[in-house]
Amino acid sequence: MKLIVYSVSPSFKKFLGKQLETKVEFRSQLLPPSGDPDQLYLLHISGMELECYEWLLKYVSGKPIPVGVCADLPNIREMLECVRLGAKSYCNSHMAAIHYRQMLQLLGQGQSWFPPQMLDETFKLAQQAVKPAPAQKPLEMLTDREKDIALAVADGKSNRQIADLYEISEPTVKTHLTNIFKKLELKDRVGLVLYLKQA
């Protein structure tokens, strides 16, 4: 496994040189990938963010090139942008050696690696983004008369009592109930009562 690290930070180069047992070639200028399938790339995005984005877009996006990105101040927005542009991993520049070894091993196998805490935060954000729209209020889709009849059913009134209460015929009550069941996707009065109690 060969590792090329692009960074403009002397302190990061020194730190990473101590962390990794593998041979590392440091470069401060972003060059096109070599095409060698055993070559891994690590971009130290801090201090060269725009250049890294452009490099990922030009050389990595849509290709199976094993590239990881490390940042001094990692954040989800940057992680997602790097992944969108083709990076297979994203991490804190100063993480422990064991994590670097794990990440590089997975990159070498064509897999991805991300800090568990950042993945958790990303999943939480995704869940919030796809939360279903707030359900309509239980009876909002019913006409005023249908609401009256639904509530009367919930009070335990029979069709005859409902007809007398609202001075309509029993067949009209039945028609309203049929419409209520359709709109609320219920089968019968029992379902309607349970629906209204849960709402």
What does this protein look like?
This protein is an alpha/beta fold and 199 residues long. The chain has two domains: 2-119, 3-Layer(aba) Sandwich (Rossmann fold); 144-198, Winged helix-like DNA-binding domain superfamily/Winged helix DNA-binding domain (Arc Repressor Mutant, subunit A, Orthogonal Bundle), CATH 1.10.10.10. Helix content is 51%, strand content 12%. It has nine helices and five strands, in the order βαββαβαβαααααα. The protein has helices spanning 10-19, 49-60, 76-84, 97-108, 116-129, 144-154, 159-166, 170-184, 189-198, and strands spanning 2-6, 24-27, 39-44, 67-71, 89-92. Strands 2-1-3-4-5 form a five-stranded parallel β-sheet, sandwiched between helices. The radius of gyration is 31 Å and the shape is rod-shaped. The two termini are 60 Å apart.
